[in-house]
Amino acid sequence: MLGGTVSGQAGAALGATAFPLIGPVGVVALRQLVTAAVLVPTVRPRIRGRSREQWLLALGLVAVFSVMNLSLYLAVERLGLGLAVTIEFLGPLAVAILGSRRRLDLACAVLAGVGVVVLTNPGPTTDVVGIALALAAAATWAAYILLNRAVGQQFSGLDGPALASGLTALAWLPVAAWWFTQHPLTWHALALGAGCAILASLVPYVVDVLALRRVPAPMFGTFASINPVWAALMGWLVLHQTLDVNEWVGIALIVASNAVVSARGLRPQA
Asked: What b-and-e string marks burial along 35-69, b requiring 16 or more CB atoms within 10 Å of the CB?
């Protein structure tokens, strides 16, 4: 699980290094195309004989993949990796809290809200657009979690994600063709985009699937809650982005909220 977490944030940082070359849109386009180029031939999802509900779920994942990745990278460009990923993590936290009636979980929601205020430090110079983009990434991550529950029931194995990945690549193909005529694709940018796809999409997904087969989901969620910390560290190591004390405090509050909500699921119910 540690490998998947580190790989995901390292991939995001690697993608951000390509912003000066091809911009966030170019990075997302490459990420979608490379991911599909690996996942679809490997899984070879069945196309014929799919029900209307299965196609709607796959198209829903296309929308979620596209909006989630694009809004996150646009937010990273404006806010930095650590802040953007931390705000994005409010998505899975919201899913966990809204499905609970425990007072402690509601208290965690308040704690996370305080963390957001401390983290973003609202004021005249606040990047409202960047925060809105990160919140959009959070909302689509929450939608991804909810959609995946239905996908797991309607598709066998990795067919659902592979089919959605292929459809996402088809949707992004004209965008990529137009974008790269305006921002010529170099071998350096291609290598960075491919590395981002492998580290941020393929490796974490395989690790997540294997981990969820071996450990309880709440334990997995608790472990995943440190993602914002790794994002901040990767932002510092790879992108040379530094955080103020109040930003680290905000990250700590949100990470603690995620960890407590996830860990509660490990306790036996009376």
From this structure: bbebbbeebebeeeebeeebeebbebbbbbbbbbb
Query: For the residues 140-155, what does the mean pLDDT come to?
Result: 82
Dihedral sign for Cα atoms in the order 166, 168, 170, 173: negative
What is the rounded CA–CA span in Å between residue 63 and residue 34? 18
pTM: 0.84
Range scoring the smallest mean pLDDT among 64-78, 205-219, 251-265: 205-219
Quick one: tokens of 130? 């960047």
Q: Is the pLDDT of residue 11 over 70?
A: yes
According to the model, what pLDDT value does residue 266 have? 45
CB 226 within 8 A of CB 64: no
Residue 47 and residue 151: Cα distance in Å, rounded? 15
Closest CA to 27 of 191, 170, 140, 241: 191
Average pLDDT over residues 100-110: 72
Contact 13, 200 (CB under 8 A): no
Which range, of 34-48, 58-72, 194-208, 224-238, averages the lowest pLDDT?
Answer: 224-238
What is the DSSP-derived secondary structure letter of residue 183?
S
Q: How far apart are CA 20 and CA 26, in angstroms?
A: 10
Whole-number pLDDT of residue 73: 95
How far is residue 48 from each of residues 45, 53, 151, 163, 254, measured CA to CA in Å?
9, 14, 17, 11, 44
CA angle 24/133/116 to nearest 5° reads 130
Task: Give the chain's length.
Answer: 270
